[in-house]
Amino acid sequence: MTGPIVFIGIIVMVAAFPAIxxxxxxxxxxxxxxxxxxxxxxxxxxTPGMAxxxxxxxxxxxxxxxxxxVIYAAMALMISIMTFVILxxxxxxxxx
Length: 96
Hints:
Layout: H1 2-25, H2 31-56, H3 65-95
């Protein structure tokens, strides 16, 4: 049971840390630019990495590597959006 929990934790780290860096680099810009850079930075490592793994591994006949990539990209997107929201809330509280 600890295997999936560790795997999801790794996915969160691989998507959240670049998203935080993307947000910090665009902190002085408009909110839309901060959101876009956070989302793009969150996708930067996980999506190409999963594409490499999905297409390089020998798969069974019923597995679709494109579907695998889309699922992990959606997970990275949600993690990036959640990271953006958390950082924006913290910034708003800090500004008050």
